[in-house]
Amino acid sequence: MPTTLDNWNPGKAENRHPEATYEEKERLFLEVKNDVRYKDFIYGCYECGICVSACPSARFYDFSPRVIAQAIAREDVERIYDIITEDIWNCAQCFSCVRCPRQNNPGGLVTILREVSLKNGLQESKDALQGYSRVIYKVMLKGNQVSPDMLQPDFFPDWGPWVQDFSQNMHVWRKAIPMDSIRGLTDVAWRTDRKTLLELYTIWFESGNMDIIKELDESLYDLLTEVMQEELEEG
Amino acid sequence: MTENLTTVEQILERKSHPVVRDASVAPTHDMHELLLELEAKGEIILQKVPEPYVEFTTKYGRKKKIPIEHTWHHKSCGHCGHIPGYASSILWLHRQFNLDYNDPTDQTSCTGWNYYASGASNAVGQAAVMSRNFAAAYETGYFPMIHCGTSFGHYKEIREQLVHHKELRDEVRRILDKMGKPLVIPEEIVHYSEWVYAMRDRFVERQLVDMSSITATVHPACHYYKIIAEDAIYDPEIYGGQRTAVVTALLEKLGINVADYSTWFDCCGFGFRHVLVQRDFTRSYAVLRKIETMINEANPDVTITHDTGCVTTLDKSQFAAKAHDRKVGVPVLSDAQVAALAMGAHPFRVVQFHWHSTDWRPFLEKLGINWQKYWDEFQGDLDQIRAGTKSGITWQDADQPINLTA
């Protein structure tokens, strides 16, 4: 159930998710609290609502950066679990909320909450990222978030007939760009050296990034690991 | 004089004057001193801004150095993948002044879009990606210039984290050691729109297209001025110093009428994850809170912004809204594209209008540009490419400015 004006309880939240034990919820919160950035992102809350008034997601969803800041400032374990399972994927990550006069960073807290949720394989996060795996594959393997060949009419029907026009002309349009680093490329945004990509793969393995992918999508993990390890072994 | 005024009157009185900035009373801590300390301890290499540079005032009064040339162009996935005229306009502007630049292939995405969308990374991974890119720039001797607003904001936040957390620095250094790279932090993290701001007077000296008939709205990019807000450029001449000066200062210099609208602070609706897999939010927000408000309050010929996601979101979200009879039809460009067009860049070889979907033809017609003539010329290029008689468009084809309104 999303947090709304009707069900919002200014005291500690009740247990709305009995499927998880309190100890499990507390363990997740402690993971959040132990993140190196945690103390930089929360200083308390005046309840002034400036973050909510600036928040695009608060206009569109039952979502409140103020509730997130308050729940974390109070270390309200039950409420934080509600937020992890119900709210975090609605945040637009624009960081309009950092207007906060206490210098809280609710958007940054959401980032940590998302990371902890993924690392612990919460189903709600897997659901929110359905259809997103191809982007993770692209960015981790190619070093680019998006590429021209991702603009397909089936994926972007709401962008109108332009997408159809584009996909029919993509190869020739890409050759008609004066920049040497991007001319002619359709499967990546720009040309990246092989050495650069090997260094990127090293970062993914060494930083613990692959552990997160394993929890999120095991088949994506297997695919990425196989390709990247093969490339690294070839050197 | 102000002691007899009410609190509200005092605020209004203060806001009726340009903001006076005094870095010594800034409400946030400037971490540049800590950077120098880390450099002195040998923990980091601090890459200095190369000369020539220009200094501008930031939000709370600190002077920020903006390099004019010898820059390493940290490209944007969204620009290069989906709006290539954005990136080519930035480089075309450099080429017009024979400014030395490096367009590297030893660069990855900052991967910030993915991180903000999915959370599928961590602080160490993100800091290592940034540091690898900065080390790659340092190895060339060129200074990073960041094209993407999100990369710019993300890197500034990571820089803060690196400066304040030794354990993070140690972990990033351990990873960089495996590549034989040092931990390099640039003295300034520079967004290309700050360079555009620095160059605006020189652009006007070469302006070929009269833009005084145009009314534009400005969408300031969230990740430019909201993340590490104290690092964005502010100017008392622009909005009395109450909002960031980049973009607007350029447009005013080019003779464009910049019209205000009430939702200027709102984000575009990009949402990172939303724009890729949950666009009902993105479309609704972009149209209802931004485009329709702009039309109702300012009726602009164009809206101008300075980030990847903002151009994409505001442009591509307008088509579907037609089905709901919403007010749409405002073309969307970046500041670099407008500057290039003003200086006679080819609308298709350089500015690449054909990658934009909201109808841009009325905007070009209002400027007196016969777009059909240049489109036909570009079609000739494409025919040659299809026939195999031309491998592609090069700078040799695109460098020469054109008197577009002749």
Largest contact between protein chains?
A-B, 83 and 97 residues
Tell me the number of helical segments of chain B per DSSP (H or I, 4 or more residues long). Answer: 19
Parts with pLDDT < 50 across at least 5 consecutive residues of chain A: none
Tell me the structural class of chain B: alpha/beta
Amount of helix of chain A: 40-55%
User: Main sheet of chain B?
Assistant: 4 strands, parallel
- Average pLDDT rating of chain A: 94
CATH architecture of the largest domain in chain B: 3-Layer(aba) Sandwich
The total count of strands of chain B amounts to 11
Number of domains of chain A: 2
Query: What is the tally of helical segments of chain A?
Result: 13
Number of strands of chain A: 0
Q: What is the CATH first-level class name of the largest domain in chain B?
A: Alpha Beta
The SSE order of chain A reads: HHHHHHHHHHHHH
Amino-to-carboxy terminus distance of chain A? 50 Å
What does this structure look like?
- The complex is a heterodimer of chains A (235) and B (406).
- Chain A has helices at 22-33, 38-41, 50-54, 56-60, 65-73, 77-86, 106-119, 123-128, 133-142, 161-175, 194-206, 209-216, 218-234.
- In chain A, 54% of the residues lie in helices and 0% in strands.
- By secondary structure, chain A is mainly α.
- In chain A, helix 1 crosses helix 6 (77-86), helix 5 crosses helix 7 (106-119) and helix 9 packs parallel to helix 13.
- Chain B folds into 2 domains: 30-186, Glutathione S-transferase Yfyf (Class Pi), Chain A, domain 2 (Up-down Bundle), CATH 1.20.1050.140; 209-387, Rossmann fold (3-Layer(aba) Sandwich), CATH 3.40.50.
- In chain B, the strands form 4 sheets. Chain B has a 4-stranded parallel sheet. Chain B has a 3-stranded parallel sheet with strand order 5-4-6.
- The longest helix of chain B is centred in the C-terminal third of the chain and has 19 residues, at 279-297.
- The mean pLDDT of chain B is 96.
- Chains A and B meet through helix 4, helix 7, helix 9, helix 10 and helix 11 of A and helix 3, helix 4, helix 5, helix 6 and helix 7 of B.
